[in-house]
Amino acid sequence: MQHFTDEFIQAIPKTDLHVHLDGSLRISTLIDLAARAGISLPATDEAGLRKLIFKDSYRNLEEYPAGFADTTAVLRSRDALYRVAYELFMDNAAEGVRYIEVRFAPQLLMSEQLSFQQVMEAVDQGLRDARDELNRQKPRDEPEYDYGIIACAMRFFTADFSPYYRDYSRMHEFSSPTEIISGASLELAKAVVQLRAHTSIQIVGFDLAGAEYGYPASDHQASYELVEKGFLHKTVHAGEAFGPESIFQAVTKLQADRIGHGLHLFDTNLIHSSHEQDPETYVTELVNYIANRRITVEVCLTSNMQTTPDLKTLADHSFRRMLEQKLSVTLCTDNRLVSNTSICKEYRLALDNFPISPHDLKNIIAYGFKRSFYYHPYPQKRAWVRSVLNYYDQLAQKFGIKE
User: Fold this and answer.
1) Are strands 97-104 and 233-238 parallel, antiparallel or unpaired?
2) What is the pLDDT of residues 225-276, one digit of tens each?
3) Which of 64, 113, 151, 184 has the fewest CB atoms found within 10 Å of its own CB?
4) In angstroms, how far is CA 336 from the centroid of its own chain?
5) CA-to-CA distance for 86 and 21, rounded, in angstroms?
6) Where are the beta strands (DSSP E) in 213-350?
7) Are strands 233-238 and 203-209 parallel, antiparallel or unpaired?
């Protein structure tokens, strides 16, 4: 087995297709934005915030998102959104990331002073300016930088999640909780389709995030049908806190092109409904369904270790079986701040804990670019992907990596 140095990992072109804007601020920026906005944080220094909120480990998935209340609070201005988006792209580029898909729930960030379009415009402008600056500076023979934006609907929310959700809940007081959640999701889908059709904002996809257990993907089927009519790509958080049936819903009811996490794909013990097939057959057929359709799994190793108490060692992560089954997989950070990680850290963890050959590594890299929701026309995407893989081959030769 060849050794992949940190220098090689840093140099090779990479993607991050699953990174949350509101979970990936620089901690210094969070502190500064809170001070400027007069928002009180649990601590005013990095050490204090790392101890209280942004930890190396969490009790469970329910504790993990606690810090998002603070990050979303400081992001409800155009200047803050622009700054965080710009910095996120630059931080990724410093690690060799050539393409990033930034996701967030716009309805968490909207307010009376900030409309949906203004939220999206601010994020897009920050990413656009970073991309253009990077492309002006890069050597001519290196591949281009680019980005996409993914809008997240929420599987679950309450009125205190944001000003928008407070107002939406108040205006639908005679609707059931499920109807309120599904309705907000559909409003977001309408907004995303309209904005993509009438602006140059690089919206590329739609996502479903948040509490998975008890909040099925099927409640959002109308939203996904709408975004599909608008020719948007689709991804779904599934199999992070629930089992194979959640992933089944994502790929059949919502026709997901990619799956966020997919951690519990192989866990037959988490199948709760009765099926014609026995649990092992059910999972086998589901895995084959995903594999044959090249539905890509957005793997987030550090995040899963932090939120899954039953996962004792990284070597037990289902990523191993995904590789054995030849699934299309790509490594992602999920939340750079909340998980205290980076894309290079994720690659280092993967290479140190799983049997990944040079051929496997190139495939993981290639899947990230090929299965991206690239904004531009397909012929342009093909040429771009080819330039990326050619550049990868040049670096592999330079570092003495042989397939």
Assistant:
1) unpaired
2) 999 999 999 999 999 988 999 999 999 999 999 999 999 999 999 988 777 7
3) 113
4) 11
5) 11
6) 233-238, 258-261, 296-299, 329-331
7) parallel
Longest dimension (CA), the chain: 66
pLDDT tens per residue, range 203-230: 999 999 988 888 999 999 999 999 999 9
Q: In 10 A of CB 362, how many CB atoms? A: 17
Q: Give domain limits for the chain.
A: 6-398
Alpha helices in 199-233 (DSSP H): 221-229
Residues, the chain? 403
φ/ψ of 272, rounded to 5, equals -110, -20
Rounded CA-CA distance 99/92 in Å is: 9
The pLDDT assigned to 230 comes to: 96
**314: DSSP letter:** G
pLDDT score recorded for residue 1: 59
Taking alpha carbons only, the member of 117, 104, 33, 43 closest to residue 75 is 33
Please give the helix or strand (H or E) that residue 154 lies within, else none: strand 146-154
